[in-house]
Amino acid sequence: MKKLFFLTLLLLTASVGFSQSYLGWVTKQVNFRQGPGTDYGVISSLKPGTQIFIVSLETENDFYNIIDIATDKEGYIHKSFVKLGEVVENNERGMFTPSGKTSTYNPEIEIFNNTTLTLTLKLNSETYTFSPKQKRTLTLSPGTYNYRASAPGIIPNIGTEYMESNMGYTWQFYIVTERR
To answer: I need a surface site. Which of 20, 107, 111, 149 has the fewest CB within 10 A?
Structure first.
């Protein structure tokens, strides 16, 4: 019984923590809302063809949690107005570079936004905003973090990292452009 409970808990944790993200676009003019329902305020109106980042295919009241890639605003739109595109792969290489042992128990991450854009960094359920060229150190609890880094006009970078106790990390946000 104990093994079955642990296995169920492990599977539940894995499915909640690692949902798949997608690119997509809006199919018709739609209200982009603050929450998953028509009773939530409207952030803006999205035009057909607007490129979006779909956080997960899990819906709440048939609404997807999305990011408008052009503005980097997060909100909700009804799933009937969404056309799915490519899967956004998790960054398997990791994002945070270990910089050495620290004297503090909690891991510290020195983050530098090396762009002219505002960076949004989500670590689990906590959201941090960095101004252009801003450098700041975050102190976290040791453990596993799902991260999402985004900025206006940029497809979000997503992944999972383990932050070790007594360790320092660094990360520099910069933009990579590709020619196709």
So the answer is: 20
